[in-house]
Design goal:
This protein has two domains: about 160 residues, no CATH class; about 45 residues, no CATH class. Helices cover about 45% and strands about 20% of the residues. It contains nine helices and ten strands.
Length: about 280
C-alpha cells in the first residue's frame, strides 16, 4: 500500500481504505490535520509565529489544540491552536478554508475572549497582556493581494496607533512567492507530501502522521471519532425535530405545555418557545 508517496508494508489495523485515501490528501490547511501536527508541538508553533510576527526572540511555552473557552453567559469558543510564550502572552491561531469563517466579527470576538480569560480577578486593566489573533486563510479573504495583513486600532484624527495591545493578523494562504519565509510557509501549508516541504519542523510531523504505522493509526482513529460524533449529533438533531413536531401537534390540540413537555421529553422553556414561535 502506498501512502503519502511512501510504501507501508505493515497492515494498519482498523483503518478504512477510504480514510487512508483521505489522509493522503490532508494538508496543514485542513484544520483537523493541522491540529494533530501542532498538538503540544512548541517547535512547530514557534517556527510559525516567528515567521508571521518576524521575530527571532520568541519562545513558545505551551501549545494546546481545540482549546475551548466556556462562556458563563454568551457564546463559547474553541481555538484551533492556543499558545502562550515565555512571558504569558496568548496567541490564537485559526485555520480557515471557508471565507465566512474568517470574518472581522469572529476575529474581534476571539480577541475579546483572550482578554476575558487572561485577566485574573483583582488585576488591573493595565496588567492585560498583548494578544494575537491570527487567521491563516486558504484564500485571500481581504482581496488586496498582500501576503499578510496587520489589523490595529488607531486614532482616526491623528492616524496614530491606539496601542491597546490587541493584534489581529490575516495570512493569505494563496500567497505563492517562495523567495521569502511567508511564501515558503504557505507553500508548506498547501503540501500533501512532507518531501516537498521547506521547513523540517513541519515536515517531520507531517511525515509521521502520513508515513508511519503509529501516525496513520492515530489519524484513522481521529477520523473514526469524528464520524461517531457526527452520527451522534445527527441522531440528536433528528430526535429534537421529531419532538418539536410532536409538541406542535399537541399544542394545536390545546394540550397544556406542562403535559407536552413531559410527553416529549422537552423542558417547559423549550415548549413555551415552540408555542410562541408558531403562534400556538
Amino acid at each position: 500500500m502506498m501512502l503519502g508517496g511512501k510504501f507501508l508494508t505493515d497492515r494498519i489495523d482498523g483503518c478504512l481504505y477510504e480514510d487512508l485515501d483521505r489522509l493522503k490528501r490532508f494538508r496543514l490547511m485542513d484544520d483537523d490535520f493541522m491540529s494533530k501536527v501542532f498538538d503540544h508541538n512548541t517547535e512547530a508553533t514557534q517556527l510559525l509565529l516567528s515567521i508571521i510576527l518576524e521575530r527571532n526572540d520568541l519562545t513558545v511555552h505551551s501549545v494546546e489544540v481545540q482549546k475551548e473557552f466556556q462562556a458563563v453567559v454568551g457564546h463559547s469558543v474553541k481555538f484551533d491552536v492556543f499558545a502562550t510564550d515565555e512571558n504569558g502572552k496568548p496567541y490564537d491561531i485559526e485555520i480557515q478554508r471557508a471565507d465566512r469563517g474568517a470574518s472581522p466579527q469572529r476575529a474581534r470576538y476571539n480577541n475579546s475572549v483572550l482578554d476575558t480569560y487572561m485577566l485574573e480577578k483583582g488585576k488591573d486593566y493595565k496588567d492585560l497582556q498583548e494578544t494575537y489573533v491570527i487567521f491563516i486563510t486558504e484564500k485571500d479573504v481581504l482581496k488586496k493581494g498582500f501576503p499578510i495583513y496587520h489589523i490595529e486600532r488607531k486614532i482616526l484624527e491623528t492616524d496614530e496607533l491606539f496601542d491597546d495591545g490587541s493584534h489581529i493578523i490575516f495570512v493569505n494562504g494563496q500567497y505563492n512567492n517562495q523567495d521569502n519565509p511567508i511564501g515558503k510557509l504557505m507553500h508548506d501549508f498547501r503540501c500533501t507530501d512532507a518531501e516537498d516541504m521547506y521547513y523540517g519542523q513541519l515536515a517531520d510531523k507531517v511525515k509521521y502522521y502520513k508515513e508511519t504505522k503509529g501516525g496513520c493509526n492515530a489519524m484513522c482513529k481521529m477520523m473514526e471519532d469524528m464520524r461517531k460524533e457526527a452520527a451522534e449529533a445527527a441522531a440528536k438533531e433528528a430526535a429534537m425535530e421529531k419532538a418539536t413536531e410532536t409538541a406542535m401537534n399537541m399544542l394545536k390540540d390545546n394540550i397544556s405545555p406542562e403535559k407536552v413537555a413531559l410527553y416529549c421529553g422537552l423542558s417547559l422553556e423549550e415548549v413555551e418557545k415552540i408555542k410562541a414561535e408558531n403562534n400556538l
